[in-house]
Amino acid sequence: MSNAVSALNSASFEGFATVTETGLRGMITLRGDLSSAKLKAAVKAATGAAIPDVRRVTTGKDGMAAWMSPDELLILCDYASVNDTIATLTAKLTGEHALAVNVSDARAVFRIAGDGAREVLAKLAPVDLSAGAFQAGDFRRSRIAQVAAAFWLNDDNSFELVCFRSVAQYVFDVLKVSAQPGGEVGFL
C-alpha cells in the first residue's frame, strides 16, 4: 500500500510573504440543511465547531467548519482522523437527508503568511481583502487567477487557501509570482 502524500510535498517560497503548501489535511464535503438541529449537533460532535454564518469559518477542538453554500459545509480536520470524523457525522445524521464525503485527497491547502499576505492574495482574487472588509474568520469561495479556490483569514493574519489538487502547482506558481520581492503594491 502506498503512503499518502500532499500535492507538492510541503513546497515553500519566501518572498515579501511566505507561501507554503501545508501538507495533508482532512477535508469533508457535508451537504444538508444547515439550519437543522441534527446537522448542527453532528458538526459540533465531530469537530467541536458551530455551524458558521454565511461566508465564515468556525473552529472547534477537533476541526473547523467553513460555509461553502446554503446547503454545504467544508469540514476540516486532521488527515489521520478524517474517516473517524465521517463516521461521527454519519452516525449523528442517521435519518437526516445529508451527505458526508471525504475529499481530502482531491484538494491541496496553502498558507500565505507575513505582513504582505493580504497583498499577495488581493493581486489574484476578485475579493476586497482590505482589513476593514475581510477579517479573521471570513471565508470566500472565489478564484485565484484562472482557477477555483476558497480561502479564509486566520487569527494570526495568515490566510489558508484550498484548491483542487490538479491545479496545485499552478496555484503555487501564481502565489510565488505574486509574492516576489519588488512586487509589493503597498495598497493594503
**Under the CATH scheme, which class of the largest domain?**
Alpha Beta
CATH superfamily of the largest domain: Probable tRNA modification gtpase trme, domain 1
Secondary-structure content class:
alpha+beta
Number of helices: 4
Rounded mean pLDDT is: 97
* Strand content range: 25-35%
Task: Give the strand line-up of the largest sheet.
Answer: 1-2-8-11-10-9
CATH architecture classification of the largest domain: 2-Layer Sandwich
Through-space gap between termini: 47 Å
Query: Which fold name corresponds to the CATH topology of the largest domain?
Result: Gyrase A, domain 2
Described by strand count, sense and barrel closure, the largest sheet is: 6 strands, antiparallel
Number of domains: 2
Structure write-up:
With 188 residues, the protein is of the alpha+beta class. It has 2 domains: 12-23 and 106-178, Probable tRNA modification gtpase trme, domain 1 (Gyrase A, domain 2); 26-105, 2-Layer Sandwich (Alpha-Beta Plaits), CATH 3.30.70. The chain is 21% helix and 32% strand. It contains 4 helices and 11 strands, in the order βββαβββαββαβββα. Strands 1-2-8-11-10-9 form a 6-stranded antiparallel sheet. A 5-stranded antiparallel sheet has the order 4-5-6-3-7, covered by helices on one side. Strand 1 and strand 2 (18-21) form a beta hairpin. Helix 1 (37-47) packs antiparallel against helix 2. The protein is globular, with a radius of gyration of 17 Å. The termini are far apart. 37% of the residues are buried. The mean pLDDT is 97. It comes from Shimia gijangensis. Pfam families: SoxG.
